[in-house]
């Protein structure tokens, strides 16, 4: 079941989302420039979910330390399940332990969250959210502070979560977004929905890599390449060979 | 986080990229260098032998992982102008330095905003501008590219190149490979220990970089057709 949200007012930015359909599963990107209002959209969605009680939305904020309130890592992930109990049901205990293990936090379970590194704090906030298994995951720049190993953990988790829940992510890394999400919204005084490859071509700023720049020029010249192929060098080369062998690039005036 | 024992020498005007897994001690190293965390044993000395505890105020400029933690001004403009004022500049000099930084980082529209009302990316930009206004001897940037959009990233890279040209000593902490191409040395930490100290000149694929950078930047541009030809024949190692 997806959720239809209407007339969502965004504070500070002074604009309103007239209508937004939050899907029930999959991975979606919310993209926009700094200050466009992406984090405010997330905070308004959380507020909407609390008031409407229609669905359980979970947020991992840009600065995860703000949401780490408990005395230890273990307390942080188990407090919603304790409800006055001193011990957890075996099944919950095993599940929470496994999640902490996945995020390399099990050995740190007695640590105070504020003593963790920035990357570990983000892992903890993500693990705590995973334990709650919300209907919609709102992940605000989840890639930041994570090393390669934990970026891969995050990707694999997101793919798993996305099968049964909606995962909406913000990020400035188009390369990453285009490999993990198929569609989403461009945020600028409103939300423009679309395929992420198309949104990249329409709205992305200065290319970060020569290959990204090359792909933009090819699309400008109406060369039939897949917009997101630049994110994977092997894919880009495959398309390059195809259009080269097909004579398309030679016939152009580039 | 326990750090060390760690022996590390940083040349004046050097740019180091310090990387390593989460929890390896990168931020702890920054905290030690800024004096936030005391060293249990050992010494930190500057070129002339001046011990860490006697470094003059403002020697180290630090952009933290969460820049909101370091913003104390009531407005963005005030926050950026505070460091020069504290370091002994006159009011007019501090204001001028602050205004210059605001312009450099394109923060003028946000000058009178409360720092807490900025987005994460703009907070990061304001923290960079404050360090620019401080003009320290040693600049430490902890994940400076976090939360920046493409134009913010370009401004950051331009500023880092400017610091390098001025031979300002620079430590960049983070994960992204882009810093390996910018830095003179790459330091890898793991569990608080230094496990590798590499100079960067030999690791960049010069042929690929020169070919495409020339085209990308706009000097002696090869045509897209030429680049595609190189690409599809596998001669470009991407």
UniProtKB/TrEMBL annotation, chain A:
<protein>
    <recommendedName>
        <fullName>ABC transporter domain-containing protein</fullName>
    </recommendedName>
</protein>
<dbReference type="InterPro" id="IPR027417">
    <property type="entry name" value="P-loop_NTPase"/>
</dbReference>
<keyword id="KW-0067">ATP-binding</keyword>
<dbReference type="GO" id="GO:0005524">
    <property type="term" value="F:ATP binding"/>
</dbReference>
<dbReference type="GO" id="GO:0042626">
    <property type="term" value="F:ATPase-coupled transmembrane transporter activity"/>
</dbReference>
<dbReference type="Pfam" id="PF00005">
    <property type="entry name" value="ABC_tran"/>
</dbReference>
<dbReference type="InterPro" id="IPR003439">
    <property type="entry name" value="ABC_transporter-like_ATP-bd"/>
</dbReference>
<dbReference type="GO" id="GO:0016887">
    <property type="term" value="F:ATP hydrolysis activity"/>
</dbReference>
<dbReference type="InterPro" id="IPR050095">
    <property type="entry name" value="ECF_ABC_transporter_ATP-bd"/>
</dbReference>
<keyword id="KW-0813">Transport</keyword>
<feature type="domain" description="ABC transporter">
    <location>
        <begin position="20"/>
        <end position="143"/>
    </location>
</feature>
<keyword id="KW-0547">Nucleotide-binding</keyword>
<comment type="similarity">
    <text>Belongs to the ABC transporter superfamily.</text>
</comment>
């Amino acid at each position: 079941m997806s959720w239809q949200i209407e007339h969502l007012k965004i504070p500070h930015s002074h604009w309103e989302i007239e209508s937004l359909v939050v899907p029930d599963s999959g991975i979606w990107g919310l993209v926009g420039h700094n200050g466009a209002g992406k984090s405010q959209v997330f905070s308004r969605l959380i507020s909407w979910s609390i008031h409407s009680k229609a669905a359980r939305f979970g947020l991992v904020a840009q600065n995860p330390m703000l949401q780490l309130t408990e005395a230890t890592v273990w307390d942080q992930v188990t407090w919603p399940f304790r409800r006055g109990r001193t011990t957890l049901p075996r099944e919950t205990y095993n599940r929470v332990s496994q999640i902490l293990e996945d995020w390399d936090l099990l050995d740190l379970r007695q640590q105070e969250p504020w003593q963790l590194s920035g990357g570990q704090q983000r892992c903890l906030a993500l693990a705590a959210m995973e334990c709650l298994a919300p209907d919609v995951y709102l992940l605000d720049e989840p890639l930041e502070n994570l090393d390669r190993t934990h970026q891969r953990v995050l990707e694999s988790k997101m793919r798993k979560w996305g099968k049964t829940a909606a995962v909406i992510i913000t990020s400035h890394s188009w390369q990453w977004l285009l490999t993990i999400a198929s569609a989403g919204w461009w945020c600028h005084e409103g939300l423009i929905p679309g395929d992420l490859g198309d949104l990249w071509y329409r709205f992305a700023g200065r290319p970060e890599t020569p290959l990204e720049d090359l792909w933009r020029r090819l699309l400008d010249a109406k060369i039939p390449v897949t917009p997101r192929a630049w994110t994977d060098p092997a894919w880009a080369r495959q398309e390059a060979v195809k259009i080269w062998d097909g004579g398309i690039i030679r016939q152009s005036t580039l | 986080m326990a750090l060390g024992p760690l022996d590390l020498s940083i040349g004046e005007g050097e740019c180091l990229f310090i990387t390593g897994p989460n929890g390896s001690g990168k931020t702890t190293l920054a905290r030690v260098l800024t004096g936030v965390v005391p060293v249990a044993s050992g010494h930190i000395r500057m070129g002339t032998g001046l011990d860490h505890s006697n470094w003059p105020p403002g020697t180290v400029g630090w952009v933290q992982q969460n820049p909101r933690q370091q913003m104390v001004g009531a407005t963005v403009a005030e926050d950026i102008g505070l460091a020069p004022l504290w370091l002994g500049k006159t009011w007019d000099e501090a204001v001028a330095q602050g205004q210059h930084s605001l312009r450099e980082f394109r923060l003028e529209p946000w000058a009178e905003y409360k720092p807490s009302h900025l987005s994460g990316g703009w907070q990061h930009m304001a923290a960079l501008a404050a360090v620019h206004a401080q003009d320290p001897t040693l600049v430490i940037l902890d994940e400076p590219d976090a939360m920046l959009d493409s134009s913010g990233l370009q401004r950051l890279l331009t500023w880092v190149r400017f610091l390098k040209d001025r031979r300002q000593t620079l430590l960049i902490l983070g994960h992204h490979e882009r810093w390996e191409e910018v830095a003179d040395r790459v330091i890898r930490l793991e569990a608080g220990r230094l496990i590798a100290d590499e100079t960067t000149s030999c690791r960049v694929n010069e042929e690929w970089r020169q070919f495409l950078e020339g085209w990308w930047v706009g000097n002696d541009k090869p045509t897209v057709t030429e680049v595609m030809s190189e690409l599809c024949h596998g001669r470009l190692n991407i």
